[in-house]
Design goal:
single chain; alpha+beta; Chemotaxis protein chec; 6 helices; 46% helix; globular
Length: 157
């Protein structure tokens, strides 16, 4: 089975808890590491096994010297530090989303959210933002199709 794939619609309950599907729970259990909740620039939340998150962060230079010399390095460290945290899944398979993270992702208690597998973890989207993301994706594919077709037809001339 391919880990962290699939799509689920879930309800964020009145206590700000999200019940994850058995498939997602099994994927995290197989990963065997802690879980990191991270805010994505697109306005969604990501759940990564800690080892995956550390690999993502490993591509950055975290040295104190670099942070002391670079505005960009400090901002990057600040963004990852303030928008990431270790989180636990309850024995019932629920995840409680802290207020700051819910606000960031525009999720309200009682609202529908979408949990999307992204192979290295899962993303949690508000339903409205997910629909917007899907529109952008379809528009991108149509534009890509048009460019490829134009290039192919122009190459025939």
């Amino acid at each position: 089975m391919i880990p962290f794939c699939g799509f689920d619609r879930c309800l964020l309950d009145a206590n700000n808890r999200l019940k994850l599907s058995p498939r997602v729970l099994a994927d995290f259990e197989r990963s065997g590491s802690d879980i990191v909740l991270h805010c994505l620039p697109e306005g969604a939340l990501a759940l990564y096994p800690e080892e995956v998150f550390l690999e993502i962060r490993g591509s950055e230079d975290h040295s104190a010297r670099r942070a002391g010399e670079s505005f960009v390095a400090r901002r990057t460290m600040r963004r990852f530090g303030s928008l990431s945290m270790n989180i636990s899944i309850s024995p019932q398979g629920r995840l409680t989303l802290p207020e700051h993270y819910r606000d960031y992702a525009d999720m309200k208690p009682g609202s529908e959210v979408v949990v999307v597998g992204v192979e290295i973890g899962v993303e949690i989207w508000s339903r409205d933002r997910w629909e917007e993301e899907q529109l952008r994706f379809r528009e991108h594919l149509r534009e890509k199709d048009r460019r490829e077709m134009d290039a192919d037809l122009n190459g025939m001339n």
